[in-house]
Amino acid sequence: MRRLAAIVLAGALVGVGGSGAQTMGGRDQDWPLHGRDAGEQRFSPLQQVDAKTVSRLGVAWYADFDARSLRGVEGTPIVVDGVMYATGPWSKVIAVDAASGRRLWDYDPQVPGAYARKACCDVVNRGPAVADGKVFVGALDGRLIALDARTGKPVWSVVTVDQDKSYTITGAPRVVGKLVIIGNGGSEYGVRGYVSAYDVATGKLAWRFYTVPGDPKTGFESKAMAMAARTWSGDWWTYGGGGTAWDSFAYDPDLDLLYIGVGNGGPWNAGVRSPQGGDNLFLSSIVAVRPKTGEYVWHFQETPGDQWDYTATQHMILADLTVDGKVRKVLMQAPKNGFFYVLDRKTGEFISGKPYVRVTWAKGLDPRTGRPDIVPEARYSLTGKPFLGMPSPAGGHSWQPMSYSPQTGLVYFPAQEMAYGYTALPAAGFQYRPRGWNTGEDLTKIMMPEDPKVRAQIRGMMKGKLVAWNPVAQKEAWSVPMATPWNGGALSTAGGVVFEGNGEGYLVAYRADTGEQLWSKFLGSGIVAPPITYSIGGVQYVAVAVGWGGILPLNMGEVLKKGVPPRVNRIVAFRLDGDAAMPLPAAYTPPLDPPPSTAPAAMIDQGRAYFHASCWMCHGESAVNNSGVPNLRRSPVIASAAAFRSFVLEGAAEPGGMPNFGKDYTQEQAEAIRAYLIKRANDLKADPNQP
What we know:
The structure is a single chain. The chain has about 700 residues and is α+β, with helices and mostly antiparallel strands. Among the domains are: about 1-160 and about 505-590, no CATH class; about 600-685, Cytochrome Bc1 Complex, Chain D, domain 2 (Orthogonal Bundle). Helix content is about 15%, strand content about 30%. The chain has 11 helices and 39 strands. Strand 3 (about 80) and strand 4 form a beta hairpin. The longest helix is centred in the last third of the chain and has 20 residues, at about 665-685. The chain is globular, with a radius of gyration of 24 Å. The termini are far apart. The model is unreliable at about 1-25 (pLDDT under 50).
């Protein structure tokens, strides 16, 4: 285990500006950190698999997760000293021999099924961290757990959140020196975001950095919070404020700066959250702090006064770029708001920014400050009028990691173009729901029309692509169109290859310089996780976690008609001339046999409103999903009022993740929801071409 710890600590000190051309030494053979190096470039110096040999890739091994159900798999595995550590749904951890896939141990944190209700975007986990002979994982219920890397037995566990509130953890921890860093999620549910640092050895809290201010009457935790509070108005703290740091971090060991990606406002509706306006720091910002103390150093806000769910939690990459003839230490990000940013990572100074997808909420960025020129119509919470915004809350680019190749100078990432109808509830009519979504949006008016022809037209407007972006020229070098707008993260290598999984279930290799497709393999499920690569005994492996899920497959099944629902949740590893068998379970579609739709139209409309208030985030807009969560139109449960009540009002399936809504709805209201689902099932029966 000394060698394991030494490798990981060495990996934590990898510089972020070099070419990464070395091929010897443990750190280059392994994948020791979430982004492979501290700067999160996700570029590997391995070259055995290159543009000429990649066509020979075959399955080396696979290892299935022991999931309660087939849910989204978003994790980046860590490979150290020949062992792979990976996380799956419900924060479960597996350790396998990275050359053979032989299982070494499993760990189940036993997250209560009721916690699924607090997770906006599936019961996913984006990976572990490994250091000091320990494996660190953030559990969905807010615990940070340290496991013995050799045995998988818990060493320590701490609760990092108030579990009475709707906090979750889906992001990967980061280890910096002797501290392990973790954030949290839950902005939509009415929480206040923060980042915590714990002692690697003991789990003792070292510091906590809040990302939005709390109640001024109780005092501010730091000068940074006092500064931030001047950019808010009203009683924002009663709604939490949001700003959760639910995914991205990066670290520069030379500057000794930790970079935090901060999330959206809670509620989205700025008229509720901060009625007199204001930038609302540090929402949708990148914040630099000292990793030993959590002391604020600088910030850059990408979306002032965010009211579109335009988080800055997307992957950040640190690199050294030559800009205007001068080498600059930069931070790069393609956040949800549709602009690609290049910042000076020493100071937070804006260097450049251009749209990488169609943007309708802003005319552009100020070339000096980077501040967006927001169009008046986009401030829907102030105008009181709906706004058709692009990007949508899913973002022009979401959490799926990017990759930067120092060889080509390009950044590779999945992008998408989707529109969204932002419709604000009147601020005076907003009611905070302690156990529900608190966006301040009228969720009954943002859904897609149920007319199949109109839905098909809207679906045709939504696109996905793999983008190769030149961050110096701030323009697209090449792109590859995708069948769905929801696809996996990227990996680039010194072999001149870019790997990405997609919603149709294929892991694909492209030429890094041109985008030419070189190889692909169907893996039985849509892929959203990013691939990794590593070498053992002179053999290079490429591996990816497989399992379709996350927010869009859960709630926008119509858009993802070509996405492949999961048949498996697994890790698959490839090597040159690999020939291992990899059986896939047969695809299964439940029969469609609904009872007749006889309920009055008013009851069905009422059920639709209840469904869109509480159910659609997991079971899909208009009861259309494309994930492992049951398709309610095909569920036999809707045929029986008693059976339906047992699930919805009595928690019959709560251990598996179906929440108990007994405190939220009456029997009559539950029956209205059932009537709506029966109607939607009959819609599908009448038109089987619906997804």
